[in-house]
From TrEMBL:
Keyword Glycoprotein set for record: no
Pfam families tied to this protein: Cytokin-bind, FAD_binding_4
Family: Belongs to the oxygen-dependent FAD-linked oxidoreductase family.
An example Gene Ontology biological process: cytokinin metabolic process
Protein name listed in UniProt: cytokinin dehydrogenase
UniProt entry keywords in alphabetical sequence: FAD, Flavoprotein, Oxidoreductase
Protein backbone atom coordinates (compact mmCIF):
# COMPACT_ATOMS: atom_id res chain seq x y z
CA UNK A 1 0.00 0.00 0.00
CA UNK A 2 2.73 2.48 0.98
CA UNK A 3 4.85 1.73 -2.08
CA UNK A 4 1.79 2.16 -4.22
CA UNK A 5 0.94 5.44 -2.48
CA UNK A 6 4.41 6.84 -3.13
CA UNK A 7 4.17 5.97 -6.79
CA UNK A 8 0.75 7.51 -7.23
CA UNK A 9 1.30 10.71 -5.28
CA UNK A 10 4.37 11.59 -7.27
CA UNK A 11 2.93 11.04 -10.74
CA UNK A 12 3.39 14.31 -12.65
CA UNK A 13 3.08 13.62 -16.38
CA UNK A 14 -0.45 14.90 -16.29
CA UNK A 15 -0.99 16.21 -19.75
CA UNK A 16 -0.02 13.31 -22.00
CA UNK A 17 -3.55 12.31 -22.89
CA UNK A 18 -4.27 10.31 -26.05
CA UNK A 19 -5.98 13.01 -28.13
CA UNK A 20 -7.09 10.56 -30.81
CA UNK A 21 -9.40 8.81 -28.41
CA UNK A 22 -11.02 12.06 -27.32
CA UNK A 23 -11.74 13.38 -30.80
CA UNK A 24 -13.19 10.04 -31.92
CA UNK A 25 -15.43 9.85 -28.89
CA UNK A 26 -16.34 13.51 -29.12
CA UNK A 27 -17.45 13.22 -32.76
CA UNK A 28 -19.55 10.13 -32.17
CA UNK A 29 -21.26 11.56 -29.10
CA UNK A 30 -23.05 14.64 -30.35
CA UNK A 31 -23.28 16.03 -26.82
CA UNK A 32 -25.32 19.02 -25.68
CA UNK A 33 -22.66 19.56 -23.05
CA UNK A 34 -18.90 19.65 -23.58
CA UNK A 35 -15.88 17.35 -23.54
CA UNK A 36 -12.39 18.41 -22.52
CA UNK A 37 -9.06 16.65 -22.59
CA UNK A 38 -6.39 19.24 -21.83
CA UNK A 39 -5.69 20.62 -18.36
CA UNK A 40 -8.26 18.40 -16.70
CA UNK A 41 -6.02 16.77 -14.10
CA UNK A 42 -6.79 19.40 -11.48
CA UNK A 43 -10.46 18.37 -11.49
CA UNK A 44 -10.68 14.86 -12.84
CA UNK A 45 -7.37 13.38 -11.73
CA UNK A 46 -7.46 14.32 -8.04
CA UNK A 47 -9.74 14.10 -5.05
CA UNK A 48 -10.10 15.47 -1.53
CA UNK A 49 -7.98 12.66 -0.08
CA UNK A 50 -4.95 13.85 -2.05
CA UNK A 51 -3.45 10.36 -1.85
CA UNK A 52 -4.03 9.25 -5.42
CA UNK A 53 -3.72 10.85 -8.81
CA UNK A 54 -4.51 9.17 -12.14
CA UNK A 55 -4.82 10.25 -15.77
CA UNK A 56 -8.28 10.21 -17.31
CA UNK A 57 -8.70 10.48 -21.07
CA UNK A 58 -11.35 13.17 -20.95
CA UNK A 59 -13.62 15.17 -18.69
CA UNK A 60 -17.21 15.38 -19.84
CA UNK A 61 -19.54 18.13 -18.73
CA UNK A 62 -22.97 16.77 -19.63
CA UNK A 63 -26.00 18.98 -19.90
CA UNK A 64 -28.25 16.20 -18.63
CA UNK A 65 -29.23 12.54 -18.51
CA UNK A 66 -29.24 12.01 -22.29
CA UNK A 67 -25.61 13.14 -22.53
CA UNK A 68 -24.62 10.79 -19.72
CA UNK A 69 -26.36 7.85 -21.41
CA UNK A 70 -24.52 8.65 -24.67
CA UNK A 71 -21.16 8.70 -22.90
CA UNK A 72 -21.77 5.33 -21.25
CA UNK A 73 -23.00 3.80 -24.53
CA UNK A 74 -19.95 5.17 -26.37
CA UNK A 75 -17.64 3.67 -23.74
CA UNK A 76 -19.43 0.32 -24.09
CA UNK A 77 -18.63 0.27 -27.80
CA UNK A 78 -14.89 0.44 -27.03
CA UNK A 79 -12.90 -2.44 -25.64
CA UNK A 80 -11.33 -0.59 -22.74
CA UNK A 81 -12.96 2.70 -21.71
CA UNK A 82 -14.43 3.10 -18.24
CA UNK A 83 -16.67 5.90 -16.93
CA UNK A 84 -16.51 7.56 -13.52
CA UNK A 85 -19.26 9.89 -12.33
CA UNK A 86 -17.54 12.57 -10.32
CA UNK A 87 -19.75 14.24 -7.75
CA UNK A 88 -17.70 16.82 -5.91
CA UNK A 89 -14.61 14.61 -5.77
CA UNK A 90 -14.69 14.44 -1.97
CA UNK A 91 -13.64 10.82 -1.87
CA UNK A 92 -10.42 9.94 -0.10
CA UNK A 93 -9.03 7.05 -2.12
CA UNK A 94 -9.62 7.84 -5.80
CA UNK A 95 -13.14 6.36 -5.87
CA UNK A 96 -14.39 8.98 -8.37
CA UNK A 97 -11.42 8.62 -10.71
CA UNK A 98 -11.00 6.72 -14.00
CA UNK A 99 -7.44 5.92 -14.99
CA UNK A 100 -7.38 6.10 -18.79
CA UNK A 101 -11.16 6.49 -18.76
CA UNK A 102 -13.87 9.13 -18.99
CA UNK A 103 -14.81 11.29 -16.03
CA UNK A 104 -18.29 12.80 -15.95
CA UNK A 105 -18.51 16.06 -14.03
CA UNK A 106 -21.93 15.63 -12.42
CA UNK A 107 -21.91 19.20 -11.09
CA UNK A 108 -22.58 20.45 -14.60
CA UNK A 109 -26.09 18.98 -14.21
CA UNK A 110 -26.69 20.45 -10.76
CA UNK A 111 -29.55 22.77 -11.73
CA UNK A 112 -31.59 20.03 -13.44
CA UNK A 113 -34.81 18.45 -12.20
CA UNK A 114 -35.39 20.76 -9.19
CA UNK A 115 -39.11 20.39 -8.46
CA UNK A 116 -41.33 20.26 -5.36
CA UNK A 117 -43.96 17.48 -5.27
CA UNK A 118 -46.67 16.46 -2.87
CA UNK A 119 -47.37 12.74 -2.79
CA UNK A 120 -50.11 11.39 -0.49
CA UNK A 121 -49.96 14.68 1.41
CA UNK A 122 -46.19 14.57 2.04
CA UNK A 123 -43.60 16.89 0.48
CA UNK A 124 -40.71 15.66 -1.69
CA UNK A 125 -38.10 17.41 -3.80
CA UNK A 126 -36.74 16.09 -7.08
CA UNK A 127 -33.06 17.06 -7.42
CA UNK A 128 -30.19 16.31 -9.76
CA UNK A 129 -27.68 13.64 -8.76
CA UNK A 130 -25.08 16.35 -9.35
CA UNK A 131 -26.65 18.90 -6.97
CA UNK A 132 -24.76 19.85 -3.82
CA UNK A 133 -26.67 19.16 -0.62
CA UNK A 134 -25.93 22.72 0.57
CA UNK A 135 -27.79 24.08 -2.45
CA UNK A 136 -30.67 21.68 -1.89
CA UNK A 137 -30.87 22.98 1.69
CA UNK A 138 -30.73 26.66 0.75
CA UNK A 139 -33.30 26.36 -2.02
CA UNK A 140 -35.74 24.21 -0.05
CA UNK A 141 -35.63 26.44 3.03
CA UNK A 142 -35.78 29.76 1.22
CA UNK A 143 -38.45 28.74 -1.30
CA UNK A 144 -40.64 26.34 0.71
CA UNK A 145 -39.51 26.45 4.39
CA UNK A 146 -38.96 22.72 3.99
CA UNK A 147 -35.77 20.64 4.27
CA UNK A 148 -34.53 17.06 3.83
CA UNK A 149 -34.60 15.04 7.05
CA UNK A 150 -31.24 13.28 6.99
CA UNK A 151 -27.89 14.95 6.36
CA UNK A 152 -24.15 14.59 6.27
CA UNK A 153 -22.05 16.81 8.56
CA UNK A 154 -20.59 18.65 5.59
CA UNK A 155 -22.86 19.66 2.73
CA UNK A 156 -20.53 20.42 -0.21
CA UNK A 157 -21.13 16.84 -1.32
CA UNK A 158 -23.39 15.79 -4.16
CA UNK A 159 -26.67 13.97 -3.87
CA UNK A 160 -25.44 11.12 -6.11
CA UNK A 161 -22.09 10.89 -4.29
CA UNK A 162 -23.57 10.43 -0.82
CA UNK A 163 -26.44 8.18 -2.01
CA UNK A 164 -23.80 5.89 -3.55
CA UNK A 165 -22.39 5.43 -0.04
CA UNK A 166 -25.11 6.07 2.59
CA UNK A 167 -24.89 9.67 3.86
CA UNK A 168 -24.88 9.81 7.66
CA UNK A 169 -24.95 12.43 10.36
CA UNK A 170 -26.60 13.06 13.72
CA UNK A 171 -30.15 12.70 12.32
CA UNK A 172 -29.57 9.16 10.99
CA UNK A 173 -30.54 7.50 14.29
CA UNK A 174 -34.09 8.76 13.71
CA UNK A 175 -34.55 8.84 9.93
CA UNK A 176 -31.86 6.46 8.77
CA UNK A 177 -29.08 7.48 6.37
CA UNK A 178 -29.81 9.64 3.34
CA UNK A 179 -30.29 6.43 1.36
CA UNK A 180 -33.36 5.70 3.54
CA UNK A 181 -34.85 9.08 2.65
CA UNK A 182 -35.25 8.82 -1.10
CA UNK A 183 -38.20 7.15 -2.80
CA UNK A 184 -37.31 7.28 -6.48
CA UNK A 185 -34.18 7.52 -8.62
CA UNK A 186 -33.45 8.07 -12.28
CA UNK A 187 -30.35 6.10 -13.16
CA UNK A 188 -28.18 5.61 -16.25
CA UNK A 189 -27.05 1.99 -16.06
CA UNK A 190 -23.74 0.59 -17.29
CA UNK A 191 -25.60 -0.39 -20.48
CA UNK A 192 -26.40 3.27 -21.10
CA UNK A 193 -30.11 2.74 -20.38
CA UNK A 194 -32.06 5.50 -18.61
CA UNK A 195 -34.19 3.81 -15.95
CA UNK A 196 -36.55 5.21 -13.32
CA UNK A 197 -36.58 3.02 -10.24
CA UNK A 198 -38.18 2.87 -6.80
CA UNK A 199 -39.19 0.34 -4.15
CA UNK A 200 -41.90 -0.93 -6.50
CA UNK A 201 -40.47 -0.22 -9.96
CA UNK A 202 -37.13 -1.75 -11.03
CA UNK A 203 -36.52 -2.27 -7.32
CA UNK A 204 -33.33 -4.30 -7.78
CA UNK A 205 -31.68 -1.29 -9.45
CA UNK A 206 -33.13 1.12 -6.86
CA UNK A 207 -31.78 -0.77 -3.85
CA UNK A 208 -28.62 -1.70 -5.73
CA UNK A 209 -27.77 1.93 -6.51
CA UNK A 210 -28.36 3.04 -2.89
CA UNK A 211 -25.01 2.47 -1.19
CA UNK A 212 -23.87 0.77 -4.41
CA UNK A 213 -20.53 2.63 -4.71
CA UNK A 214 -21.56 3.78 -8.19
CA UNK A 215 -21.32 0.20 -9.50
CA UNK A 216 -24.75 -0.21 -11.07
CA UNK A 217 -25.64 3.15 -12.51
CA UNK A 218 -25.17 6.89 -12.46
CA UNK A 219 -27.84 8.57 -10.37
CA UNK A 220 -29.12 11.51 -12.41
CA UNK A 221 -32.17 12.38 -10.30
CA UNK A 222 -33.31 11.59 -6.77
CA UNK A 223 -36.66 12.15 -5.05
CA UNK A 224 -35.91 13.22 -1.47
CA UNK A 225 -38.35 13.28 1.48
CA UNK A 226 -38.83 16.69 3.09
CA UNK A 227 -40.06 17.98 6.44
CA UNK A 228 -40.84 21.47 7.78
CA UNK A 229 -37.57 23.32 8.44
CA UNK A 230 -37.23 24.62 12.01
CA UNK A 231 -35.99 28.19 12.53
CA UNK A 232 -33.45 27.54 15.24
CA UNK A 233 -31.30 24.91 16.93
CA UNK A 234 -30.04 24.63 20.51
CA UNK A 235 -26.60 23.11 19.99
CA UNK A 236 -25.06 21.43 23.05
CA UNK A 237 -21.78 19.70 23.94
CA UNK A 238 -21.48 17.57 27.07
CA UNK A 239 -18.21 16.15 28.35
CA UNK A 240 -17.71 12.66 29.78
CA UNK A 241 -14.64 11.09 31.33
CA UNK A 242 -15.89 7.49 31.19
CA UNK A 243 -16.59 5.74 27.88
CA UNK A 244 -19.28 3.51 29.43
CA UNK A 245 -21.28 6.55 30.58
CA UNK A 246 -20.86 8.29 27.24
CA UNK A 247 -22.12 5.27 25.29
CA UNK A 248 -24.94 4.59 27.76
CA UNK A 249 -26.29 8.12 27.34
CA UNK A 250 -25.77 8.20 23.56
CA UNK A 251 -27.62 4.89 23.20
CA UNK A 252 -30.37 6.07 25.56
CA UNK A 253 -30.95 9.14 23.37
CA UNK A 254 -30.93 7.33 20.02
CA UNK A 255 -33.41 4.68 21.15
CA UNK A 256 -36.10 7.07 22.46
CA UNK A 257 -39.18 8.07 20.49
CA UNK A 258 -39.34 11.29 18.50
CA UNK A 259 -40.35 14.11 20.85
CA UNK A 260 -38.62 12.40 23.78
CA UNK A 261 -35.05 12.97 22.62
CA UNK A 262 -32.86 15.44 20.78
CA UNK A 263 -33.13 15.91 17.00
CA UNK A 264 -29.45 15.31 16.45
CA UNK A 265 -27.03 13.04 18.35
CA UNK A 266 -23.33 12.73 17.61
CA UNK A 267 -20.15 12.54 19.66
CA UNK A 268 -16.40 12.75 19.52
CA UNK A 269 -13.30 11.69 21.38
CA UNK A 270 -10.63 14.23 22.33
CA UNK A 271 -7.30 14.15 23.99
CA UNK A 272 -7.18 14.91 27.73
CA UNK A 273 -4.73 17.75 27.16
CA UNK A 274 -4.56 21.44 26.37
CA UNK A 275 -3.57 20.79 22.74
CA UNK A 276 -5.46 23.46 20.73
CA UNK A 277 -6.60 21.05 17.97
CA UNK A 278 -6.85 17.67 19.69
CA UNK A 279 -7.56 18.58 23.31
CA UNK A 280 -9.90 20.59 25.59
CA UNK A 281 -9.92 23.77 23.45
CA UNK A 282 -11.65 21.81 20.63
CA UNK A 283 -14.82 21.44 22.73
CA UNK A 284 -16.39 24.90 23.41
CA UNK A 285 -18.91 26.16 20.85
CA UNK A 286 -18.33 29.84 21.42
CA UNK A 287 -15.15 31.90 21.90
CA UNK A 288 -16.64 33.15 25.20
CA UNK A 289 -16.94 29.62 26.58
CA UNK A 290 -14.10 28.41 28.76
CA UNK A 291 -13.19 24.76 29.20
CA UNK A 292 -11.92 24.67 32.76
CA UNK A 293 -9.90 21.45 33.22
CA UNK A 294 -10.33 21.72 37.00
CA UNK A 295 -13.72 20.05 36.48
CA UNK A 296 -12.28 16.93 34.84
CA UNK A 297 -12.69 14.03 37.30
CA UNK A 298 -9.50 12.62 38.84
CA UNK A 299 -10.35 9.20 37.40
CA UNK A 300 -10.13 10.46 33.78
CA UNK A 301 -7.74 8.72 31.43
CA UNK A 302 -5.81 9.70 28.30
CA UNK A 303 -8.92 10.72 26.37
CA UNK A 304 -12.27 12.32 27.12
CA UNK A 305 -15.60 12.06 25.27
CA UNK A 306 -18.05 14.68 24.11
CA UNK A 307 -21.70 14.01 23.37
CA UNK A 308 -22.96 16.54 20.84
CA UNK A 309 -26.73 17.01 20.67
CA UNK A 310 -29.15 19.51 19.18
CA UNK A 311 -32.81 20.40 19.60
CA UNK A 312 -34.87 22.14 16.90
CA UNK A 313 -37.24 24.99 17.76
CA UNK A 314 -39.08 27.87 16.15
CA UNK A 315 -39.08 31.62 16.71
CA UNK A 316 -42.60 31.47 18.09
CA UNK A 317 -41.75 28.83 20.73
CA UNK A 318 -41.63 30.43 24.19
CA UNK A 319 -38.05 30.49 25.58
CA UNK A 320 -39.19 28.69 28.74
CA UNK A 321 -40.53 25.82 26.60
CA UNK A 322 -37.07 25.27 25.10
CA UNK A 323 -35.35 25.58 28.48
CA UNK A 324 -37.72 23.04 30.01
CA UNK A 325 -37.32 20.59 27.12
CA UNK A 326 -33.52 20.84 27.24
CA UNK A 327 -33.27 20.56 31.04
CA UNK A 328 -35.61 17.55 31.14
CA UNK A 329 -33.37 15.72 28.71
CA UNK A 330 -30.10 16.83 30.29
CA UNK A 331 -31.11 15.86 33.82
CA UNK A 332 -31.26 12.20 32.72
CA UNK A 333 -27.66 12.25 31.45
CA UNK A 334 -24.43 11.55 33.33
CA UNK A 335 -22.04 14.14 31.85
CA UNK A 336 -19.59 16.22 33.90
CA UNK A 337 -22.01 18.90 35.11
CA UNK A 338 -19.68 21.90 34.78
CA UNK A 339 -18.49 20.86 31.32
CA UNK A 340 -21.64 21.65 29.41
CA UNK A 341 -21.56 24.11 26.48
CA UNK A 342 -24.64 25.50 24.74
CA UNK A 343 -25.42 27.97 21.96
CA UNK A 344 -28.48 28.95 19.92
CA UNK A 345 -27.91 29.13 16.18
CA UNK A 346 -30.14 29.28 13.14
CA UNK A 347 -31.01 25.94 11.54
CA UNK A 348 -29.04 26.88 8.40
CA UNK A 349 -26.03 27.94 10.44
CA UNK A 350 -26.14 24.61 12.25
CA UNK A 351 -26.35 22.50 9.10
CA UNK A 352 -23.65 24.58 7.40
CA UNK A 353 -21.36 24.45 10.47
CA UNK A 354 -18.57 22.53 8.71
CA UNK A 355 -18.42 25.22 6.01
CA UNK A 356 -16.86 27.44 8.69
CA UNK A 357 -14.31 24.73 9.44
CA UNK A 358 -13.56 24.58 5.71
CA UNK A 359 -13.01 28.35 5.52
CA UNK A 360 -10.69 28.19 8.51
CA UNK A 361 -8.77 25.19 7.16
CA UNK A 362 -8.42 26.86 3.76
CA UNK A 363 -6.98 29.95 5.44
CA UNK A 364 -4.49 27.71 7.29
CA UNK A 365 -3.57 25.78 4.14
CA UNK A 366 -4.65 22.40 5.54
CA UNK A 367 -7.84 21.98 3.50
CA UNK A 368 -5.95 21.24 0.30
CA UNK A 369 -3.29 18.99 1.84
CA UNK A 370 -3.81 15.19 1.98
CA UNK A 371 -6.55 13.66 4.12
CA UNK A 372 -5.87 10.03 5.04
CA UNK A 373 -9.30 9.62 6.65
CA UNK A 374 -10.72 6.41 8.03
CA UNK A 375 -14.43 5.62 8.44
CA UNK A 376 -15.56 2.45 10.22
CA UNK A 377 -18.85 1.06 11.45
CA UNK A 378 -18.14 -0.85 14.69
CA UNK A 379 -20.79 -3.02 16.32
CA UNK A 380 -21.89 -2.19 19.89
CA UNK A 381 -20.51 -5.57 20.93
CA UNK A 382 -16.99 -4.48 19.87
CA UNK A 383 -16.97 -0.79 20.71
CA UNK A 384 -15.55 -1.06 24.25
CA UNK A 385 -12.58 -3.07 22.95
CA UNK A 386 -12.14 -0.56 20.14
CA UNK A 387 -12.09 2.35 22.59
CA UNK A 388 -9.70 0.60 24.99
CA UNK A 389 -7.03 0.02 22.35
CA UNK A 390 -7.61 2.44 19.48
CA UNK A 391 -8.74 5.63 21.23
CA UNK A 392 -7.12 5.23 24.65
CA UNK A 393 -3.79 3.98 23.32
CA UNK A 394 -3.12 4.27 19.57
CA UNK A 395 -4.82 7.65 19.08
CA UNK A 396 -4.57 9.15 22.55
CA UNK A 397 -2.85 12.29 21.25
CA UNK A 398 -5.48 12.84 18.52
CA UNK A 399 -5.33 12.85 14.73
CA UNK A 400 -5.04 16.58 14.00
CA UNK A 401 -8.82 16.86 13.58
CA UNK A 402 -12.06 15.45 15.00
CA UNK A 403 -12.41 11.78 15.95
CA UNK A 404 -16.16 11.21 15.67
CA UNK A 405 -18.06 8.40 17.33
CA UNK A 406 -21.83 8.02 17.62
CA UNK A 407 -24.42 5.24 17.57
CA UNK A 408 -26.72 4.32 14.67
CA UNK A 409 -29.63 1.89 14.47
CA UNK A 410 -29.60 -0.92 11.96
CA UNK A 411 -33.40 -1.03 11.79
CA UNK A 412 -33.35 2.41 10.10
CA UNK A 413 -31.37 0.96 7.18
CA UNK A 414 -33.06 -1.13 4.53
CA UNK A 415 -31.10 -4.35 4.10
CA UNK A 416 -32.07 -4.51 0.43
CA UNK A 417 -29.65 -1.62 -0.16
CA UNK A 418 -26.09 -2.44 -1.23
CA UNK A 419 -24.36 -0.98 1.83
CA UNK A 420 -23.13 -3.54 4.35
CA UNK A 421 -23.29 -3.12 8.13
CA UNK A 422 -21.82 -4.97 11.10
CA UNK A 423 -24.07 -7.31 13.13
CA UNK A 424 -26.47 -6.09 15.81
CA UNK A 425 -29.12 -3.38 16.10
CA UNK A 426 -26.77 -0.72 17.52
CA UNK A 427 -23.48 0.06 15.82
CA UNK A 428 -21.16 3.05 16.00
CA UNK A 429 -19.74 5.12 13.21
CA UNK A 430 -16.12 6.01 13.94
CA UNK A 431 -14.52 8.67 11.76
CA UNK A 432 -10.91 9.84 11.94
CA UNK A 433 -10.78 13.24 10.25
CA UNK A 434 -7.05 13.64 9.94
CA UNK A 435 -5.78 17.06 8.87
CA UNK A 436 -2.09 16.97 8.10
CA UNK A 437 0.40 19.25 6.46
CA UNK A 438 1.95 17.82 3.28
CA UNK A 439 4.98 15.62 3.78
CA UNK A 440 6.23 12.17 4.65
CA UNK A 441 3.92 11.92 7.66
CA UNK A 442 1.03 11.11 5.30
CA UNK A 443 2.40 7.65 4.59
CA UNK A 444 2.74 7.02 8.32
CA UNK A 445 -0.86 8.00 8.87
CA UNK A 446 -2.10 5.78 6.05
CA UNK A 447 -0.09 2.99 7.69
CA UNK A 448 -1.71 3.76 11.05
CA UNK A 449 -5.17 3.46 9.48
CA UNK A 450 -4.12 0.12 8.07
CA UNK A 451 -2.80 -0.93 11.48
CA UNK A 452 -6.17 -0.10 13.07
CA UNK A 453 -8.07 -2.12 10.47
CA UNK A 454 -5.68 -5.05 10.80
CA UNK A 455 -5.97 -4.92 14.58
CA UNK A 456 -9.79 -5.04 14.27
CA UNK A 457 -9.51 -8.11 12.02
CA UNK A 458 -6.97 -9.85 14.27
CA UNK A 459 -9.05 -9.29 17.40
CA UNK A 460 -12.21 -10.49 15.65
CA UNK A 461 -14.05 -7.19 16.10
CA UNK A 462 -17.41 -6.92 14.38
CA UNK A 463 -16.93 -4.03 11.93
CA UNK A 464 -17.32 -2.85 8.33
CA UNK A 465 -15.49 -0.03 6.60
CA UNK A 466 -17.72 2.88 5.59
CA UNK A 467 -16.61 4.51 2.27
CA UNK A 468 -14.67 1.26 1.85
CA UNK A 469 -11.37 1.06 0.04
CA UNK A 470 -9.72 -2.25 -0.71
CA UNK A 471 -7.09 -3.40 -3.17
CA UNK A 472 -7.85 -7.08 -3.59
CA UNK A 473 -10.83 -9.13 -4.62
CA UNK A 474 -10.45 -11.21 -1.45
CA UNK A 475 -10.83 -8.08 0.69
CA UNK A 476 -13.95 -7.00 -1.19
CA UNK A 477 -15.45 -10.47 -0.77
CA UNK A 478 -14.79 -10.33 2.95
CA UNK A 479 -16.22 -6.82 3.14
CA UNK A 480 -19.50 -7.83 1.51
CA UNK A 481 -19.63 -11.23 3.23
CA UNK A 482 -23.01 -12.85 2.62
CA UNK A 483 -24.01 -9.95 0.34
CA UNK A 484 -21.16 -10.54 -2.13
CA UNK A 485 -23.12 -12.80 -4.49
CA UNK A 486 -26.02 -10.32 -4.60
CA UNK A 487 -23.57 -7.50 -5.37
CA UNK A 488 -21.97 -9.52 -8.20
CA UNK A 489 -25.38 -10.47 -9.63
CA UNK A 490 -26.45 -6.82 -9.63
CA UNK A 491 -23.22 -5.91 -11.41
CA UNK A 492 -23.89 -8.54 -14.02
CA UNK A 493 -27.44 -7.25 -14.57
CA UNK A 494 -26.76 -3.51 -14.70
CA UNK A 495 -23.13 -3.05 -15.71
CA UNK A 496 -22.00 -6.37 -17.22
CA UNK A 497 -18.86 -4.89 -18.84
CA UNK A 498 -17.79 -3.17 -15.61
CA UNK A 499 -17.68 0.27 -17.18
CA UNK A 500 -18.80 2.28 -14.16
CA UNK A 501 -16.92 3.65 -11.14
CA UNK A 502 -13.56 1.94 -11.83
CA UNK A 503 -11.94 3.97 -9.02
CA UNK A 504 -13.62 1.68 -6.48
CA UNK A 505 -11.41 -1.15 -7.81
CA UNK A 506 -14.01 -3.85 -7.29
CA UNK A 507 -14.45 -5.16 -10.84
CA UNK A 508 -12.24 -5.12 -13.94
CA UNK A 509 -13.49 -3.81 -17.30
CA UNK A 510 -14.40 -6.63 -19.69
CA UNK A 511 -15.22 -6.64 -23.42
P1 LIG B 1 -17.42 11.66 -5.23
O1 LIG B 1 -16.26 11.58 -4.34
O2 LIG B 1 -17.28 12.53 -6.42
O3 LIG B 1 -17.88 10.20 -5.68
C1 LIG B 1 -17.96 9.14 -4.76
C2 LIG B 1 -18.31 7.83 -5.48
O4 LIG B 1 -19.64 7.90 -5.96
C3 LIG B 1 -17.44 7.56 -6.71
O5 LIG B 1 -17.29 6.18 -6.86
C4 LIG B 1 -18.25 8.14 -7.84
O6 LIG B 1 -17.95 7.54 -9.06
C5 LIG B 1 -19.66 7.82 -7.39
N1 LIG B 1 -20.63 8.82 -7.82
C6 LIG B 1 -20.55 10.17 -7.75
N2 LIG B 1 -21.68 10.72 -8.22
C7 LIG B 1 -22.48 9.69 -8.59
C8 LIG B 1 -23.78 9.60 -9.15
N3 LIG B 1 -24.49 10.68 -9.42
N4 LIG B 1 -24.29 8.38 -9.38
C9 LIG B 1 -23.59 7.25 -9.10
N5 LIG B 1 -22.35 7.28 -8.59
C10 LIG B 1 -21.81 8.48 -8.33
N6 LIG B 1 -20.09 11.18 4.51
C11 LIG B 1 -21.10 10.95 5.35
O7 LIG B 1 -21.84 9.99 5.19
N7 LIG B 1 -21.31 11.78 6.41
C12 LIG B 1 -20.58 12.89 6.63
O8 LIG B 1 -20.82 13.61 7.57
C13 LIG B 1 -19.53 13.18 5.73
N8 LIG B 1 -18.78 14.27 5.89
C14 LIG B 1 -17.77 14.52 5.00
C15 LIG B 1 -17.01 15.67 5.16
C16 LIG B 1 -16.00 15.98 4.28
C17 LIG B 1 -15.21 17.25 4.46
C18 LIG B 1 -15.70 15.07 3.23
C19 LIG B 1 -14.58 15.36 2.30
C20 LIG B 1 -16.43 13.91 3.08
C21 LIG B 1 -17.48 13.62 3.95
N9 LIG B 1 -18.27 12.49 3.82
C22 LIG B 1 -19.30 12.26 4.68
C23 LIG B 1 -17.97 11.49 2.80
C24 LIG B 1 -18.78 11.71 1.54
O9 LIG B 1 -20.11 11.33 1.74
C25 LIG B 1 -18.22 10.84 0.42
O10 LIG B 1 -16.86 11.10 0.25
C26 LIG B 1 -18.97 11.09 -0.86
O11 LIG B 1 -18.61 10.11 -1.78
C27 LIG B 1 -18.54 12.43 -1.39
O12 LIG B 1 -19.47 12.92 -2.26
P2 LIG B 1 -19.01 13.49 -3.66
O13 LIG B 1 -20.24 14.07 -4.18
O14 LIG B 1 -17.83 14.35 -3.59
O15 LIG B 1 -18.70 12.11 -4.38
Amino acid sequence: MIACLGRIVHSTDADCIPEADVSTISQSLDLQGSIESGGIMGVAGKDFGGLYSVKPVALIKPSGTEDIARVVKAASRTSHLTVAARGNGHSINGQAMADGGLVIDMRSTEENHFKLLTIDGSPYIDVSGGALWEDVLKRCVSMFRLAPRSWTDYLSLTVGGTLSNAGVSGQAFRYGPQTSNVTELEVVTGKGEITVCSETQNSELFFGALGGLGQFGIITRARVKLQPAPDMVRWIRLVYSEFEEFTRDAEFLVTREEGESFDYVEGFVFSNSDDPINGWPSVPLDPDHVFNPVHIPQSAGSVLYCLEVALHYNHNDHPSTIETAVSRLLERLGFVRRLNFQVNVSYMEFLLRVKRVEEHAKANGIWDSPHPWLNIFVSKSSIVDFDRTVFKKMLKDGVGGPMLIYPLLRSKWDDRMSVVLPEGEIFYIVVLLRFVPKGPSVEKLVAQNQEIVEWCIKKGLEFKLYLPHYQSNEDWKRHFGKQWSRFVERKFSFDPMAILAPGQRIFKRTH
